[in-house]
Design goal:
Length: 354
């Protein structure tokens, strides 16, 4: 490099000033130096590419972000029990009331001297552990109708249409309180567009009309009667009473915590007899317990009684009415009883063989 610079200086000294400068800038050595400098400068430049992100739905945005959420299953069994009447709630275990005590507490807050709503609904919130038989499986969301012994106003319209053949079945359904009862002629009216199924909240059918009812499967879709939803059966009167006066409830899993489910329902007004309210709650819990998975551990984890407009929530013990843990032996006995009912001739053959 030094030899190149010395030759350039000698050339500049031997030539006139203007001519030397012109030749200095036109030399191949200078051009190569400028070319290398430009390439280095280009390499140093970092090209920033902006990637366009399309629209992400609101229910999928948090999936890309690792957000720490608190466990919704509340377990305060490790906390101590308060010995005083006044204490800071978060440091002590929640008190557990009987259903009668909880109803009395709500009645006091809804007294005319306070909220003045004596006929407020008594709501129940039931928290579930939706963990399935396997660690990676969870109980699906379900919607059911629980039959209760004591009727009350639900505040919703429940029109029931019944499909059946035979005069005896039609008379039975009408006496039970069905909104509309019919057979093949009723199916023809619906297929002809003279009657709308959307005007009825519940559809019930007798097995004797099932072959003709298949023509309406496309219109009914999920409302098509079936034994699983208890809308298809021979006892029409019982089904009609259940769907007209029962408690409709649904269990929904949390969006982010799949093993947490919640049920919210009403068991009656506060001015109803306390024993009747308790019996309605008992039947509701027993109906929910029929959906429990075959695994160890609790299915119903916590039950709270509420009554708007009060924000007070009182914890009760649900295991007075349903078993706390799944009993494998009792489930085995039930399966054997069902098997005997389905095939009663099998024990007799075994005795004859012996």
């Amino acid at each position: 490099m030094q030899s190149i610079l010395s030759s350039m200086r000698a050339l500049a000294l031997r030539q006139p000033t203007g001519d030397a400068i012109r030749r200095l800038h036109l030399t191949a050595i200078s051009e190569a130096a400028r070319k290398g400098t430009r390439e280095k400068a280009r390499k140093k430049k970092v090209k920033v590419e902006v990637k366009k992100v399309g629209f992400i739905p609101h229910n999928q945005r948090d999936k890309k972000v690792n957000v720490k959420r608190a466990d919704k299953h509340v377990d305060d069994s490790w906390k101590q029990v308060s010995k005083d009447d006044v204490y800071v709630g978060r440091y002590y275990r929640w008190p557990v009331y009987s259903v009668a005590e909880a109803i009395q507490c709500h009645r006091e807050t809804h007294h005319p001297s306070m909220y003045n709503v004596p006929n407020a609904p008594l709501n129940v919130e039931i928290e579930l552990n939706m963990q399935g038989e396997k660690a990676t499986r969870f109980v699906d969301n379900f919607q059911r109708m629980a039959m209760i012994p004591h009727k009350f106003e639900h505040g919703e319209e429940r029109k029931i249409i019944v499909f059946t053949k035979g005069n005896d079945e039609i008379l039975e359904a009408r006496q039970a309180g069905a909104s509309l009862v019919g057979g093949v002629e009723l199916i023809k009216d619906i297929t002809g567009g003279e009657l709308l199924l959307s005007d009825y909240q519940f559809i019930i059918a007798h097995p004797n009309i099932l072959p003709e009812l298949v023509a309406l499967r496309g219109l009914m879709k999920r409302k098509f009667p079936n034994p699983k939803s208890e809308t298809l059966g021979a006892n029409l009167a019982e089904m009609i009473i259940k769907f007209s006066s029962g408690i409709s409830y649904s269990a929904t899993k949390d969006e982010y915590q799949q093993n947490f489910g919640l049920i919210s329902a009403s068991v009656g007004p506060l001015d109803m007899d306390a024993q009747k309210l308790e019996e309605n709650l008992k039947h509701l819990l027993q109906d929910i317990n029929t959906m429990r998975p075959k695994r160890e551990g609790k299915f119903i984890t916590r039950v709270l009684l509420k009554s708007p407009p009060s924000s007070e929530q009182l914890k009760i013990d649900p295991f007075v009415y349903v078993p706390e843990m799944w009993d494998k032996s009792s489930a085995k006995v039930k399966r054997e009883e069902v098997k005997k009912q389905e095939d009663p001739a099998e024990p007799q053959e075994a005795v004859a063989a012996n």
